[in-house]
Amino acid sequence: MSAQAPIINEFNLGPISCHSFNQDRTELAVCFNTNVVSIFRKAGAAWNLVSSLAEHDKPVTSVDWAPKSNRIVTCSQDRNAYVWTLDSATQQWKPTLVLLRINRAATFVRWSPEEDKFAVASGSRCISVCYFEEDNDWWVGKHIKKPIRSTVLSLDWHPNNVLLAAGCADMKARVFSAFIKGVDKKPAPSPWGEKLPFNTVCGEFTNGTGGWIHSVAFSPNGDALAFTGHDSTITIVSPATGSVQSVRAPYLPYLSVLWLNENQIVAAGHDCAPHLFEIKGQQWSFSASLDAAVKKADVGFTARDTFRRMDSRGQSTASNDTEVNTHHQNTINSIRVFSGTRDHVEQFSSSGIDGKLIIWSTDNIAKGLSNLHL
Amino acid sequence: MAFRKIDIDALEEDALRQEELDFQEIGEPRPQHEVEAEVNSRAQEVRSLLQRGDLAGALSTSLQNPPYGRHLEAAKARNTQTVMEVLISIKVADMAQFVKNLSFEEQDVMMKYLYACMANPEQSNSGQILAWHEKLSEVAGPGCIVRVITDRRTV
């Protein structure tokens, strides 16, 4: 059990707005809700600050570290994105400005699986799909505009490097083609469509009860899409069968969603704990909370007792205990793969407003829970 | 801070407006008389179920297909009245059992009506409504409350 206990990294530097690891997980890019992205290097159990990426002048909203090409992309409320490359001689990160052409904050950024493109979501009702133009030595962006009606809050790339899912504040999740001529090869046909010129809308989905779509994620093989909304639902659509399933959770809304494998999804958000959803037969349902933190014994005092205790001890409040029964002490805003493969995630990391970054292991989930529920 | 009062959406040609969101979430507005006729016939059906003592049937019927839309204030008030009549005829001790038998959809609709009743305390029995709220949130959790807040289809 001890090997599988969550690994808690506490930075105490403020709320974490986004995080991303390098390929071998020895370095970590993290933003503490400021305009600076800090790069930490692992030293034993500790993380040492090695450099700071300070080029944005408004809070950084998202960061993504490309594992193979070792480049970092950051985007910010200042409407800019930078691609950072490590200068091998000086070991300094060098920024390159990206031409996004947006007039509102950039909200989310992700590298494509091949790392030859990245997509930036923004408040100006568009997604900027950026690719490197050799001729001009410059990253340029091409806009996906229609039919987005509000701020795009999250993105996820399909493993084929062409399709892009977007969760939007207009209460819809959409799947677009982000095919760039000259960069991409023609993708193989998938349930999402066969002919895929840029900005093709391959799907548009709602969760039934409204609310912003906070997070989107393609299944490991890309044939299904999961998204979470502010109405505390998680919806799984698979275009091959035409099935759309909304699971209404009895908990607070989820801000981030991640597939562990084809049959298990983890979602986390305002409830401060990652929750597991599983498919049984054809039906998705809530399975368990992955945070097995010990519940504090409920002190069954009556109101009269409470007031008497307050009186006798001179306390101003009934209790000074403000801790939540979970490892995260506040909203989790991002969960990402830490180890394993796309179709078999072994560990994932979560970061949140409490300034903690926690690494969760999934082996005991796969074994323990399936025994429990089957 | 005067600039905070500027309606920047007015300057934007293609802003997302209330009507568009309503249309997206609720659909084509239904004619007022049609909805009112539906609400009235449901009220009668619920009343006859209540008289026959079929409380579960009355509760479930009253929560079906609620009137949504900004132009239907009268029908909404009438339907809230119908739901409330059922809610106050069920004893506090039996509430938990009724809540458990509702579908997820019905639970969410019921939570909407509980808040609608709380908005007009003079027309309802607040004690009973609060008891319902307690029982329903035990079963449906904060998720159900969040859905009521998020949903643009208000009752």
From TrEMBL, chain A:
It holds the Pfam family WD40. One of its GO terms (cellular component) is actin cortical patch. It comes from the Eukaryota. Belongs to the WD repeat ARPC1 family. GO terms for molecular function: actin filament binding. Keywords: Actin-binding, Cytoplasm, Cytoskeleton, Repeat, WD repeat. The keyword DNA damage does not apply. Functions as component of the Arp2/3 complex which is involved in regulation of actin polymerization and together with an activating nucleation-promoting factor (NPF) mediates the formation of branched actin networks. This is Actin-related protein 2/3 complex subunit. WD repeats lie at residues 53-94. It is found in: Cytoplasm, Cytoskeleton, Actin patch. One of its GO terms (biological process) is Arp2/3 complex-mediated actin nucleation. The lineage of its organism: Eukaryota, Fungi, Fungi incertae sedis, Mucoromycota, Mortierellomycotina. InterPro entries: ARPC1, WD40/YVTN_repeat-like_dom_sf, WD40_repeat_dom_sf, WD40_rpt. It comes from Mortierella alpina (Oleaginous fungus).
Automatic annotation (TrEMBL), chain B:
Its main location: cytoplasm. One of its GO terms (biological process) is Arp2/3 complex-mediated actin nucleation. It is found in: Cytoplasm, Cytoskeleton. Keywords: Cytoplasm, Cytoskeleton. Belongs to the ARPC5 family. It comes from Mortierella alpina (Oleaginous fungus). It comes from the Eukaryota. The keyword Nucleotide-binding does not apply. Functions as a component of the Arp2/3 complex which is involved in regulation of actin polymerization and together with an activating nucleation-promoting factor (NPF) mediates the formation of branched actin networks. One of its GO terms (cellular component) is Arp2/3 protein complex. This is Actin-related protein 2/3 complex subunit 5. The lineage of its organism: Eukaryota, Fungi, Fungi incertae sedis, Mucoromycota, Mortierellomycotina. InterPro entries: ARPC5, ARPC5_sf.
